[in-house]
Amino acid sequence: METLFILNRDRIDRQGLYENTPVGGNVPILRNDQYRVKQEKILRTSLTSGFLNDQIIELGVEVAINNYDQIFNQEKYTAGIYSLSTDDDVSVKENRYEFFANHTYNISPKMVLQSSLAWEFSRINSLTVPISGGAIPRNKKFSFLKPRADFRYDLTANDQFRASVERKISQLDFQNFVAIYDADLDRLRPGNTGIVPEKSWNYSAAFEHRLANDGGALQVEFFYRDIKDYIDLVDFTEFFDASGAAIARANLDFISVSGNIASARSYGLKTAASLRFGFIGLPEAVFSIDHKWEKSKVTDQFSGVRRMFIWTPEHKINFNFRHDVTKWNFSYGGSGTIQSVTSGHEIDQVQTSYNGDNYEVFAEIKIFGDMKLIFKFEHLTPLRYNIDTPVYKDHIRYNELDRFENRIWKYVREYSVFLQGTF
Question: Which residue has the higher pLDDT, 23 or 201?
Answer without folding.
Answer: 201
